[in-house]
Design brief:
The protein is an all-alpha fold and about 130 residues long. Helix content is about 80%, strand content about 0%. The chain starts with a helix and ends with a helix.
Length: about 130
Amino acid sequence: MVLLANWLAARFRVRRLNWLFVLLFATLALNYLLPIKALLIDPPLLRYALAIVLLFSPIFCANLIYSNLFRDTPQPSTAFGANLLGAMIGGAAEYLALYFGYQNLMVFAGLFYALAFLVFFWQFRRAQAVTPP
């Protein structure tokens, strides 16, 4: 999913990242609301395809957002460092799934991505205030 997102971001420029954030939160909500047991269907090939699309769609959306932001940033080292920090915090937070369960892990992911969206929105507003019309 990461490779596919990077490939798409290299070929297509997304002008409004807000829609990607909406898609990200929608996929997180779908992962939260749809129990994994619902994917136990036949034939197995369809089951695996649905599981891949459902479980990895938030990762795909997040990578589309990051790839577009990283391509357009004037400070790539800062953006890469922030991404590494987020990956470390997110990876450590994955262990919360052992206690809270996979479904509830989506709530934590949603909170982390909401924080990322607020930082993105704040930076965007700040950049628009600095640049003359």
